[in-house]
Write a structure and sequence with these properties.
The protein is mainly alpha-helical. It contains 5 helices and no strands.
Length: 127
């Protein structure tokens, strides 16, 4: 549950930072451009959440707290509860970033607070 809150906070702060930078622009963008930018940001947030959730799930398997089958099923249910298709886990960007995010997790599978900025940078730059 703690991991879910951390992931949500990371994704929310990324989206908030992106929205602030858009709002800081002098000239307003046409509505169609604003919609496209919002779509891109939403897709990035979905990939970020999915990658971090996948990293946490794999961490729980690696630490022996869950079996792979249990972790896969729980992850799929978690994503579906948020309206995210589990197919997003097949996205090459998610598959590439997830192991790197897993490396930032502590033994209890929570994000190391000292590496939060690194995780945010990775999400911003790679997803």
């Amino acid at each position: 549950m703690r991991l879910r809150r951390v992931i949500s906070c990371l994704v929310f702060s990324l989206a908030l930072t992106s929205c602030r930078s858009m709002a800081a622009e002098q000239s307003p963008l046409p509505p169609e451009v604003q919609r496209r930018v919002a779509t891109v940001l939403l897709a990035r947030s979905i990939r970020a959440y999915s990658a971090m959730a996948h990293a946490g799930s794999n961490c729980l398997v690696k630490s022996g707290r869950l079996q792979q089958v249990q972790a896969d099923r729980a992850l799929a249910i978690s994503l579906q509860e948020l309206g995210i298709s589990p197919a997003v886990l097949l996205n090459p960007l998610v598959q590439q970033v997830s192991p790197r995010l897993q490396a930032l997790l502590l033994e209890d599978c929570s994000l190391d607070p000292e590496r939060e900025q690194e995780a945010l940078s990775m999400i911003r730059d790679d997803l």
